[in-house]
Amino acid sequence: MQKSDYITVGIIEDDVAYMKQVRTAVDATTAIRCTIGQPSIEDFFESLKPYQDLDILLLDIHLPGESGINGLLRIKKRLPNTAVIMHTVEENDTLLFKAFLRGAEGYLVKENDMDELIKNLHIIANGGGAISPIMARALIGYFHPNTPSAPKKLEGLGTKDTQILHMLSEGWTYKYIAKKLDITVDGVRYYIRKIYKRLGAHSRHEATKIYRRLSD
Amino acid sequence: MQKSDYITVGIIEDDVAYMKQVRTAVDATTAIRCTIGQPSIEDFFESLKPYQDLDILLLDIHLPGESGINGLLRIKKRLPNTAVIMHTVEENDTLLFKAFLRGAEGYLVKENDMDELIKNLHIIANGGGAISPIMARALIGYFHPNTPSAPKKLEGLGTKDTQILHMLSEGWTYKYIAKKLDITVDGVRYYIRKIYKRLGAHSRHEATKIYRRLSD
DNA sequence: AAGAATACTACATACTCATGCACTATTTGT
DNA sequence: ACAAATAGTGCATGAGTATGTAGTATTCTT
After folding, report:
1. What is the torsion angle, in degrees rounded to the nearest 10, for the CA atoms of residue A63, residue A69, residue A75 and residue A79?
2. A192 CB and strand D closer than 7 A
3. Distance CA A181, CA A164 (A)
């Protein structure tokens, strides 16, 4: 994933003091370089050179102008190989799920422990995922049985139903879903029947449309 | 969540050397006590006293007798307030999902860095989630839109191709499309073959995703 | 303690879809 | 005028999907 000798990271952050703190910490390392730092998404795109690329982008959520969460899609389109870490003070699981559904690779809550941040940059650069503890718990909680969680379980659908609906809408085959969840193909059928009945759908396509409409 | 002055942790692990390593590390801390350590689920239940409780349980997956993943339900039933961390050498995302669907609070890959493990125990005790970096990435990846690789432009597709692609992505059947365009179903097939080839798709779903991505 | 609901597994059937091969009519380039 | 691409039709096969019916083990209700 690395294109140069360094891990290149960019940062979009309107708190200039905090940005400076991060840049100083990054510059103190030997393996990571901060090649771009801007206070807004608009400024970021403006300053990004035609073929410029990044390994990692630290993206604040609360920004003047376009928010980080909204800019994420645009950023991912321009920099498909850049791992984006959402970086915010907010421990908000709606934002957390939204970020991942839009392609983020990490969600870190801002803190002043720069060593921890640097460690997470290395983790990301090595193909790992970066999540702050509390957010990790929220993420895990999403899979827990009968726990209402952020990507709203549509009324009357349980954790597993919702999970299967999600995979279904991503286009996976029954066989693949069965293997992932370690149940039989007939087991998958069982859930899909249930989901279709609940949604009033009669095909993968209808179900997908309904799911997407209800979950953005 | 803590019931005593200490964080109490149990461990079920058949690798005695590894268990010893963990116990030693835990005993070296001031805040955590290892109150139970057994080499199998059966032994664990046998040695568990009537009202004994735990804050955290480190649960190996590969065990003689009942596997950790299967025992998890039984354990959660007996110890509903205990946070269970699956603890294994296997970086396997089927197991990962299964563990969380069954109520685990963490999934850590075994390593010899005991400081890291202790840190994770504290995280769990403070209501956080513990996941090893690679597993975190797998978990995050579950939410990612799975983007098929595709050409950057819809070039090379004629008016009729595009029209059919559009109808295809709206979910219409070949029969319906054939009737609408007044050609045979095989005619529709002919175009769809062409479209798939051009897009590098192999199913309606892939084609739809590519189409949507390229036309917004 | 009996019955109902839940969470599957299993088998069956018909339809849809992806793809390969063969054939033809029309258009287009040289 | 001839080759070759384009735009289909036709048939075949296997995989994937939707839906019905039935059975079992476990959990929840009363």
Report:
1. 120
2. yes
3. 9
pLDDT over 90 at B207, yes or no: yes
For chain C, which bases have at least one atom within 7 A of a protein Cβ? 7-12, 16-20
Q: Test B131 with A130 for CB contact under 8 angstroms.
A: no
Distance CA B41, CA A146 (A): 26
Pull the structure tokens for residue B73: 């339900």
pTM here is 0.92
At B88, the pLDDT band (50, 70, 90 cuts) reads very high
Residue among B86, B117, B140 nearest B22 (CA):
B117
Considering all nucleic acid strands, name the nucleotide whose C1' atom is nearest to the C-alpha of residue A174: D16
Pairing state between β A32-38 and A56-60:
unpaired
Can you list the residues of chain A whose pLDDT is less than 70? 1-4, 153
What is the four-CA torsion angle of B154, B158, B162, B163, rounded to 10 degrees? 170
Question: What is the count of residue pairs from A and B with beta carbons less than 8 Å apart?
Answer: 109
Nearest to B36 by CA among B95, B79, B66, B70: B79
List phi, psi (to 5°) of A61. Answer: -95, -45
To 5 degrees, how large is the angle CA B40–CA B43–CA B49? 135
Query: Helix count (H) and strand count (E) of chain B?
Result: 10, 6
- Among all residues of chain B, which has the CA nearest to that of A168? B205
* Strand C contact with B196 (CB < 7 A): yes
Q: Say whether the CB atom of B180 is under 7 angstroms from strand D.
A: no
Which residues in chain A touch residue B128, judged by CB atoms under 8 angstroms apart?
Answer: 132-134, 136-137
Span A171-192, pLDDT tens digits: 999 999 999 999 999 999 999 9
* Strand, coil or helix: A61: coil
CB contact under 8 A, B134 and A128: yes
Tell me which of A1, A94, A100, A140 to substitute to probe the interface with B (most B C-beta atoms closer than 10 Å): A140
Q: Average of pLDDT values for B24-32?
A: 96
Are B203 and B171 in contact, with CB atoms under 8 Å apart? no
At B173-195, the pLDDT tens digits run 999 999 999 999 999 999 999 99
Sheet with B7-12: strands ordered across: B32-38, B7-12, B56-60, B83-88, B106-109, B130-131
